[in-house]
Write a structure and sequence with these properties.
This protein is an alpha+beta fold. Helices cover 35% and strands 23% of the residues. The structure holds flavin mononucleotide.
Length: 278
């Protein structure tokens, strides 16, 4: 290589180093920014759809509990129409009464937006339970609950009530539907729980839930329904107050028994239901 050629090469401007720290940081920050915008945009735009789907699922579970939605027979598109048959009432859990329209307005409650689960976490909208009261292990309960009544010819045919309580690993959220007598079980569903699939998770198994239909909650005014270990002896006098326990999931079964005892008892809907019984 001649001297003159060597000199001309050394005078060329140095090429930009693509692996420089500044380049890497610029690309990384750019990718992060784009991803953040996509994720945040999706979260915001999907929020109404997620909310609507949650509401649809809740309504479907209310219908399943009441026996109005038959898996495999009823179409999802029928949910809204079927749900419209219910009268939605607000229950004052302090005084164990249904609120009138005026009382609902006075309490500043918007039923369509009221979220009992959220309310239970807010001190001004809920009360802390003492150890003695807290048989369902829920720590606090909201001041108001919502009840769904199905009426025909002026008679209440179904009362669907939200229930929840702790199992082994999680809080189980569901609905218990009673017949118009406020005592006989019309159905039960659990729409949210994190028990072990195949063990405690069987609370959501239709075969197990079917065992509840026709059982009775109260005997001589007190909650008598138990989820027993093993199978119910159908000839036993107490059979109508007993449901088979879940195999290998005694603790979840006990949790379900406890949540029924709490919500159907004096601290829950018990006093309100005694009006239906009478
Ligand atoms: C991995 C694993 C998951 C379990 N999940 C549950 C459950 O969801 N609900 C439950 O009651 N018991 C569950 N158990 C069993 C309990 O630990 C406990 O042994 C059982 O409730 C005792 O009841 P049994 O007499 O029906 O076996 C699980 C056990 C293991 C090892």
């Amino acid at each position: 290589m001649s001297d003159s050629q060597e000199n001309s090469d050394s005078k060329e401007p140095a090429t930009k180093n693509k692996d420089s720290l500044a380049n890497i940081l610029t690309v990384a920050l750019g990718v992060c920014f784009v991803c953040a915008v996509v994720v945040a945009g999706s979260a915001v735009s999907l929020k109404p759809t997620i909310k609507a789907n949650k509401e649809l699922d809740r309504n479907k579970n209310i219908l399943i509990a009441a026996g109005l939605f038959k898996q495999g027979e009823t179409q999802e598109s029928e949910i809204d129409g079927l749900f419209e048959q219910f009268t939605v009432r607000v229950v004052d859990l302090q005084n164990k009464t249904f609120l009138t329209e005026d009382q609902i307005a006075e309490a500043n409650l918007d039923i369509s937006k009221y979220d009992q689960r959220k309310a239970a976490k807010i001190p001004g909208m809920s009360m802390e339970l003492s150890n003695e009261q807290d048989i369902a292990s829920i720590s606090r309960r909201a001041n108001y609950s919502v009840a769904y009544l199905l009426e025909k010819d002026g008679e209440v045919e179904r009362i669907v009530l939200p229930v929840h309580g702790y199992g082994l690993w999680s809080t189980l959220y569901g609905f218990l539907a009673l017949q118009g007598d406020g005592n006989t079980v019309a159905g039960i569903t659990f729409y949210e729980q994190k028990e072990t699939a195949g063990l405690g998770g069987e609370v959501d198994n239709p075969s197990w839930k079917n065992l509840w239909v026709g059982k009775e909650i109260y005997q001589d005014g007190a909650v008598a329904l138990k989820v027993i270990k093993g199978a119910v002896d159908k000839s036993a006098p107490d059979a109508k107050y007993q449901v088979d326990g879940l195999a290998g999931a005694t603790l979840t079964s006990k949790g379900v028994e406890n949540l029924i005892a709490y919500w159907m008892g004096d601290e829950g809907f018990g006093p309100l239901l005694s009006d239906f019984k009478s």
